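Technical appendix A lists one of the benchmark inputs used to test multi-chain prediction within the project. The record comprises two sequence entries:
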Amino acid sequence: MKYSNFFISTQKDVSKDVKLISHLFMLKSGMIRQETSGIYSWLPIGFRVLKKVIKIIEEIHDRHNINQILMPTIQSADIWKISNRYESYGKEMLKITDRNEKELLYGPTNEEMITAIGKHYLKSYKDLPLNLYHIQSKFRDEIRPRFGVMRAREFLMKDAYSFDLTEEDCLTTYINYFKMYLFIFKKLGIPIIPVKAPSGEIGGSLSHEFHMIVDSGESEICFSDELLKKNLLDISDSELINIRSYTSDFDKIEVGKDKLIKKKSIELGHIFLFGQKYSKPFDLHVDSKNGKVFPYMGSYGIGVSRIPAAVIEKFHDEKGIVWPKEISPFQIIIINLLTKDKVCCNYTDYLYEHLKNNRLDILLDDRDESAGKKFADADLSGIPLKLIIGKNFLNENLIGVSFRNLNKEELIHKSEIESYLNKFIKNITHDYKI
RNA sequence: CGGGGAGUAGCGCAGCCUGGUAGCGCAUCUGUUUUGGGAACAGAGGGUCGCAGGUUCAAAUCCUGUCUCCCCGACCA
């Protein structure tokens, strides 16, 4: 993408009410725009980040043979009456009626709908297990939306649902999701702490949340510091689900005892094992050798649109965002400092086309702006690698190479730039093996 | 939902107390000079002061109502 074709507007000033650093940088860098309280548009540079987050989540789910579907955002009240949640969910649920006075709602979650889908298609024990997921907008009419997309009313969520024949199988599925979540967050570059949680409105017997520790977080978790030293992907299943960490509203915590420490955090994921809670009232059953069986179910959510904000909370400096390259809107920005010089323009165009052919996301800053503004914008948007073409190139064929997270610049000769960049390119190819 | 603020140019804000021709910075447009860390000079455009009603010769300013947004506390990805 060339800057001259790119719809972006960076901003120097945003309202003094914006306190959260991720909210501030998302507004300044032109990632999002608030439409009304708790409801946001994602603008091109922000949407690029969101799409990369989505892509990583999708690839990992697909590798686990979880089928992607897309359910509607608007649901019928009927199915929510079956589970008795139409009333109990409370004011967070946005209820609407259509022209025929039919009661509808903007879905805050999809357990009912997925159960209705399961009821229609699952007939035999041979149809199990079944795993489905989708990535879709949810609406929860929060009492007080705040902090930008961190606590929005409309937000993007990945929610997966599982159907198993037995309680044992369901637990195995749950643990598999647990491990997959650890892996997803690792891929996203987010240090994550899984904690035991009360299962709340979704209901059920077992539930874990996935938190990132950050001082500006709205949640609070307690855990033993031994947890931080372990590689959680290596520990045994039973150790994993009996992990000694809790949300601070968890009934059983005794802070201080057993050296539990308390930290502020952001919740990014939540998994539930709720067994037959929905299959029974929906009369979703399959035939098996032992007769009629209600499948055991679980649901598994990730707050997708919250992730870019969470990453910014963790990775930023005084100049702006410092994206991990996996989810950066662009991997490289080429800055042409002498846009009126033919030699520089020709070379930056060449470099841009060449790198694009390597399937990299490149932003070419071809604007007729001052050097300072170009650098400031590049740093604000957090692009990991800057290639700077200016006087040094004109005089000595030298290209400035500057990594966003290192805060220093190297000069590389034109003849060596490709081999230099190859190292960087290799470094950003993904491997999703688990 | 309780408590507290704010709506004035695209964005950020001042003006309001004490009523009298609507201002500043950034951004935008034109021109010239600039280009290795948010450039300089000169010029220009842009507003029914959230909305409705009231007081007054006169309302951004005072009064009433209303809508919206934001901030501090209990729920949630």
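Chain A has a mean pLDDT of 91. Residues 10-317 of chain A form a domain with the BirA Bifunctional Protein; domain 2 fold (CATH 3.30.930.10). Comparable benchmark entries are summarised in Table A2.
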